[in-house]
Amino acid sequence: MDLSLSPIAHVDVPPDTRTKIRASGVNVFYGDKHALKDVSIAIPEKAVMAFIGPSGCGKSTFLRCINRMNDTIDIARITGNIDIDGQDIYTPSLDVVQLRARVGMVFQKPNPFPKSIFENIAYGPRIHGIAKDKTELEEIVVGSLKRAGLFEEVKDRLDDSGTSLSGGQQQRLCIARAIAVSPEIILMDEPCSALDPIASAKIEELITELRQNFTIVIVTHSMQQAARVSQRTAFFHLGILVEEGATDDIFTNPREPRTQDYITGRFG
Amino acid sequence: MTDISSPNRVFDVTSDAARARVRKRYRAEARFRAYGIAAIGFAALFLVALITDVVYRAAPAFTTSWLSIEVPATPSDIDPKGDGSVESIASGNFDAPVRARLAELLPGANDRVARRQLNALISSSGTEGFRDQILRDRDLVGKTVNTRVLLSDDADLFVKGQATDVVERAGAGQLTPSGTEGTITLSGAPPLRVSGFASADPSTLVRISGGWVKITGQQDGVLTGDVMMPLRDTAAADWKLVTFETSEGSRRLGDREVVWLQTLTEQGVIERSFNWRFFTNGDSREAELAGILGALSGSLFTMMITLVLCLPTGVAAAIYLQEFAPKNKWTDLIEVNINNLAAVPSIIFGLLGLAVFLNFFGLPRSTPLVGGLVLALLVLPTIIIASRAALAAVPPSIREGALGVGASHQQAIFHHVLPLAMPGILTGTIIGMAHALGETAPLLLIGMVAFIVDVPSGPTDAATALPVQIYLWSDLPEAAFAAKTAAAIIVLLLFLFIMNGLAIFLRRRFERRW
Ligand SMILES: Nc1ncnc2c1ncn2[C@@H]1O[C@H](COP(=O)(O)OP(=O)(O)OP(=O)(O)O)[C@@H](O)[C@H]1O
Ligand SMILES: [Mg+2]
User: Same structural domain for residues B320 and B211?
Assistant: First the structure.
């Protein structure tokens, strides 16, 4: 099957690329469970960073630290430091809501609001007062849908329920919803896990597209996907960040034997 | 793959044992379905039995009987001042001409006792319609007016065939009466096969020469009896034997009244019509005047107060406890106590209402305001528990989606979680309200059990409520109130159905939003 998707040329991140997110010594505990152990990583701006690793290794946990979504879990406790643009996001003076407007998130299972397609996207700009008036709001909605590659499919049915779309369309709707508030960072937790190869291909295309303007962190279980869309890859295992580097290096000559085993499918 | 009986399968589905297993499974399923249908059928049977019984009992309460007669609007009675003014007519005596006309129709009621019995056929407010008719058209004064007069509840019951059966048989030969009034003898009668003439037996009467004689004894072909309606003459005449199957001792109408009503029925002046009064009047001591509107409005006001108080409070409490409250010992304690509160017997809430709202705060007794407050306390735990369950049932992905685009916790809940929980919250609310609508015990304690004639016009007027009205009426000895009780039950059930229907409608509306 031709997915009409040739692998993108992997431009290694030039050394002068600015670091967008910097984590140092991050530990996460769920009650007594030590889910993430001393993770330190630098995530470059306007590039795609892929997190890979076996199930339960803490990829989602780390991702959810970046927009403080773990705050909603009562038993979760976090130590260490995460900076975005050099600003500590865990300082008490920081407003979580503003942070989440800057760091959008797309979830593993598409979760559109049970409202109209238009409302789904308009909601974020509306609560943040991004649009001055109705026409501007419509522009944002249409623009976001276009960038998410969904506009052509839904332009006649913007008043239909978001949940009436197919799974892949719903996921692109969620991406459109995330970019409508013009975040700087988009976190994607296995965005294609519920999708067929064609829908996945569309999303991958979209990610490549979005990389021009956003910093993207993506969790994926598909090595091919990581290889196709990301410039840098981080491998997690048992709560530890085992190895991080340019995607080409990780996939062609990983430094760690565990990474090698995982990539070649010997465990995981 | 196509050959499911392939021999290398460990599990052979064509073997006899496998077939037997399948048959057994089918039988088990069929059995289970049969049980289910039987259970539903059983429940439906009870429901149908209950509803038929109530409807059957209530049917008489929905019609009422009138005397449709020509009454002379004698100016001396109905226009005492003689100026034809509204005030004069309003103070007129409308009973007198109606009573006089009735005495004409039913001659022979000469003594005071008989007159009083005769007048008692008519309801105490029976001539109101006549008065209103004259007030509407004052030119009718002095003319003969065709009007409708409401019958008393006992007369009404007879007309509906509930007092006694009247059986008439032709008598053999002819009888010769000894007089036309008072106690007389009738000679020439064959022996009557009756056990006795006490009030515990069916009453035996003879109709002869246009009159009615109640037989009190017989000897050698001579019947002794009291004249109930005077005879034309004393000539020998054909006769009929009449029995009132229910003995006089066990009905509220005497033989004489039955004779009168039977005569009126035969004269064709009694008519029946739908009992609007039942829906437009408050309570009354007279069954034919008593209506449900007072209790209905009382219940309506009570429910309004309850809803207004407990829906916002309950939902707010549920949202706080479910979404915002820190999880600690205190919130655990509150949660346990809310669950306990839902199980507290309702009468305790009544006592609480009595002590707090009436005695401490001095709110007016017997009012829907206090009733609503007490019932709100009763319903609150139900609403809180149902709302919390509904909030908890909203998928967390919706919440995360909202938080993910930068909604605050509160925005996520009010914009996304609450609308999705609304159907569940409404269901819980309606269950609670239905529960409150049928509550009687707490209302008794706060005095909503008083006899109140006026229809309340607001939540601070003294009132009673539907279940209390049912309780009150069911306690009254008059047979007519038994029908009213059943009719009130129907009204209560209808109220419930309408409330539930409204809830289902609202729920659909909320659900249809996607
Ligand atoms: N809410 C939670 N409460 C308790 N433990 C949790 C919670 N969420 C995650 N964990 C635990 O933390 C560890 C890491 O979980 P996480 O979801 O980050 O894994 P993952 O790498 O995303 O796995 P997958 O690839 O299956 O999504 C797991 O062992 C998991 O059991
Ligand atoms: Mg995960």
Answer: no
Three-state DSSP at B225 gives strand
Question: How close, in Å, is residue B407 to chain A by CA atoms?
Answer: 6
Of A98, A111, A116, the CB nearest to B398: A111
For residues B356-379, give the mean pLDDT: 91
Q: Name the residue facing B397 among A97, A98, A111 (closest C-beta).
A: A111
Joined together, the tokens standing for residue B208 give: 């002869």
User: For B15-69, what is the HEC assignment?
Assistant: CHHHHHHHHHHHHHHHHHHHHHHHHHHHHHHHHHHHHHHHHHHHHHHHEEEEEEE
β-pairing, A48-52 vs A33-44, is: unpaired
Contact A121, A144 (CB under 8 A): yes
Contact assignment for B399 to A174 by CB distance below 8 Å: no
pLDDT digits (tens, 9 = 90+) for B131-182: 888 888 888 888 888 999 999 988 988 888 888 888 888 888 888 899 888 8
Q: Mapped to the 3 state alphabet, what secondary structure does B152-201 carry? A: CHHHHHHHCCCCCCEEEEEEEEEEEECCCCCEEEEECCCCCCCCCCCCCC
The per-residue pLDDT for A12 is 46
Contact B238, B176 (CB under 8 A): no
Q: How far is A38 from chain B (nearest CA, A)?
A: 25
Q: Which domain holds residue B244?
A: 166-250
B394 with B466, same domain: the answer is yes
Instruction: Take residue B193 and report the two structure tokens written for it.
Output: 């096969």
CB contact (8 A) between residue A178 and residue B327 = no
> Residues lining ligand 2 (ion), CB within 5 A?
A 60
Question: Does residue B189 belong to any structural domain of this protein?
Answer: yes
Q: Is the Cβ pair A72, B407 closer than 8 Å?
A: no
The Cβ of residue B357 has, within 10 Å, a number of other Cβ atoms equal to 21
Q: What is the ipTM of this complex?
A: 0.86
**Which of A75, A109, A113, A144 best probes binding to B when mutated, by most B CB atoms within 10 angstroms?**
A113
The residue nearest atom 31 of ligand 1, judged by CA position, is A56
State whether B405 and A104 contact (CB < 8 Å): yes
Q: How many other C-beta atoms lie within 10 A of the C-beta of residue A149?
A: 17
Domain-located, residue B13: no
Domains of chain A are 19-263 (3.40.50.300)
Q: How far apart are CA A201 and CA A5, in angstroms?
A: 7
